Amino acid sequence: MEHISIQHLTMQLAELLCARQWQLVCAESCTGGGIAKVCTDLAGSSAWFDSGFVVYSNQAKQQVLGVSSDTLQRFGAVSEAVVQEMAQGALQQSSAHVSIAVSGIAGPSGASAEKPVGFICFAWCLPNQAVASSVQYFQGDRVGIRDQAVEFALQELVKRLAAS
Predict the structure, then answer these.
(1) What is the pLDDT along the chain (164 residues), one digit of tens a residue?
(2) Dihedral of the CA atoms 24, 41, 3, 8 (nearest 10)?
(3) What is the per-residue pLDDT across 68-84, written as a single tens digit (0 to 9) for each?
(4) Which domains occur in the chain, in start order?
(5) Less packed terminus of the chain by CB within 10 Å, N or C?
(6) Using one digit for the tens of pLDDT, what is the confidence trace for 21-36?
(7) CA 110, CA 121: separation in Å to the nearest integer?
């Protein structure tokens, strides 16, 4: 992953969203609001940042974003299926045009053989496109994994917006 400062990345995102008059919403689990924080750290972010949902529990994912209990039971909270529903639910519960969703195992506990510490799922919704999702494996401690997840989520959104 190419490393550029999170502030520079956020400024790129702001430019891309403002050029289209679009707003962003994020649905976060393991990042605990980290994406929303870096977005709103940028002065003037109200022009392009709509809202953020921190849905840590399965109950919150269902009640706030409409994630189906069937999806949670079949795939688990940390899955591409769940983050796709989180991304779609965030759009439905906001005035935004674009969404990011993230769920993962930041550690140090909660891991399994199939989903080790550092296993993070992402989804992005852009207008007139199918929901895109990705799984990444990050190394490090809880803080490092969360920081890498925030950076990756934003970096991928910038790429996707630049390409659309």
Answers:
(1) 445 699 999 999 999 999 999 999 999 999 999 999 999 999 999 999 999 999 999 999 999 999 999 999 999 999 999 999 999 999 999 999 999 999 999 999 999 999 999 999 999 999 999 999 999 999 999 999 999 999 999 999 999 999 98
(2) 80
(3) 999 999 999 999 999 99
(4) 6-163 (3.90.950.20)
(5) N
(6) 999 999 999 999 999 9
(7) 15
Strand segments (E) across 6-152: 24-28, 49-54, 98-104, 119-125, 132-137
**C-alpha dihedral over 74, 77, 78, 83, to 10 degrees?**
100
Pair of tokens at residue 112? 């399994």
Report yes or no: 65 and 52 within 8 Å, Cβ to Cβ.
Answer: no
Q: For residue 98, give Cα distances in angstroms to 57, 95, 108, 122.
A: 23, 9, 31, 14
Cα 126 to Cα 111: distance, rounded to the nearest angstrom? 31
Count the helix, strand and coil residues of the chain and give each as a percent rounded to the nearest 5: 45, 20, 35
